[in-house]
Amino acid sequence: MKALITAGGRGTRLRPITHTQNKHLIPIANKPILRYAIDAVKESGITDIGIVVGVDNGQEVERAFGDGSDLGVRFTYIWQEAPLGLAHVVKISQEFIGDDSFVFYLGDNIVVGGIERFVQSFRDGGLDCYLTLARVRDPERFGVPEFDGTGRVVAVEEKPSVPKSPFAVSGIYIYGPAIFQAVNAIEPSRRGELEISDAHDYLLKHGYKVGHGEITGWWKDTGMPSDLLEANRLVLSKIDERIDGRVDSESDIAGAVVIEEGAEVIASRVRGPAIIGRGARVVDTYVGPYSSIGAGCVLEHCEVEYSILMDRVTVRSVDVRIEGSLLGNDVEICRGAGKPRVQRFVLGEQSRVELM
Questions:
Q1: Number of helices and strands (H, E) in the chain?
Q2: What's the pTM value of the predicted model, to 2 decimals?
């Protein structure tokens, strides 16, 4: 069995971060989102992995992960000319997959508990397709399954205005070779994309064996900033304390806190779960629960809670607590020294600032 992981797309809902960075490299608990998908696939026993990337930002992914040998897997990069739908991703990967079954994993999804049991159910059931489902508050954002009276999936509708169930088809699928017949038979939707839900519907209508299982832990599609923060919270809630950096005698550390090698915490309070990355410097600062502080960050005389700070962020002498925030690489927030006291911003396209 092989795996196919998506790492393309433009991440428009995560701008301005994704103006300059592939969204799959945004860190959750200081680890790229894509790494969670790779780890889940590897833990299920699959090491031959195709990574589908866009021509506009795929080079970043290739530089970050290389050929996979450092992780004990083998990557094949598959280049998608334009974001033409998930079924198109499958279609262009047929040469890589060949006649093998495969896991199709959307690289911006995170699931707790792994995927081994789903892979085993697919194998044991002799299925052509296996869908993982998650109960959600807003199924209209996703592909939604329709069930018959016996609980069997009989149809899948993409982003319906009136959902026929409270479930979303999550971003983890398992396929046999029949999926290629489906993706080559369907037509583009009104959005101009080959919809994966239409491919699933094709399999159902043509008598192929489609099974399903529910994700009973948690699953997160990290498509928006609020999703990233929630995923960060969920991942951090599972971490174990580890202090490899330096904490001075004036600092107070409580809860599950990871302080990575080379990081310094001086005269500060850190309340876990939280992680402080390599080479970060935290001075006279409060770091609250569910905060991820990236490598090389500098925090001085400030407060941060429930936030993701990517690498080399600097926050100095800020009077109000930074909370529920996502700060990209090399962002700087500081108090100006001049008079009168004013707010001065240099913000990129589609930035958002909330003043309290």
A1: 8, 30
A2: 0.86
